[in-house]
Amino acid sequence: MTETTFYIFNEDGIFKAQQLEFFCVEFSKRTAFRFRVLEKKDIDLQSTIYKKFVTETLEYTLYDHGYVMKVEGYIKQAMKLLKEIDSILSSDILLFVSPSQRVENLIENKFPRGSAEKEIAEFLDGQFRNREYTLALANS
User: Fold this and answer.
1) What is the model's pTM?
2) Angstrom distance (rounded) from CA 57 to CA 122
3) Is residue 59 classed as helix, strand or coil in its secondary structure?
4) Tens digits of per-residue pLDDT, 62-119?
5) Concatenated DSSP letters for 9-55?
6) Is 60 within 8 Å of 101 (Cβ atoms)?
7) Measuring CA to CA, which residue among 68, 16, 62 is closest to residue 39?
């Protein structure tokens, strides 16, 4: 299986830093994945990582201050996780997705909220300039 890494961000903030814990609790309740949760104290107290949600094949990282998230893992699972994150966050929040870590809201990185799996795959194909996401979806 092919793996991927992408960042979900918004330079204006996805949520306020004080809302991080509320989001993590809500996410834990609603996700279909069986994550092991790593707290900052389990990772590195000096790190900007707030929490990591980890399985054997998928890793979801939330950073302090609520501007950036990172998804790493098998393509199909990463797309499913992106869809879950999209459904949990308020629809009035703009999300941007990029293969590189940046916090600059560029229109070409604007994620189409409420998308079906096929639309998510096509969007990620465009971000990565390949067809791996639609192929992973077709081969599942």
Assistant:
1) 0.94
2) 22
3) strand
4) 999 899 999 999 999 999 999 999 999 999 999 999 999 876 888 999 999 999 999 9
5) E-TT-SS-GGGHHHHHHHHHHH-SS-PEEEEHHHH-TTSSEEEEEE-
6) no
7) 62
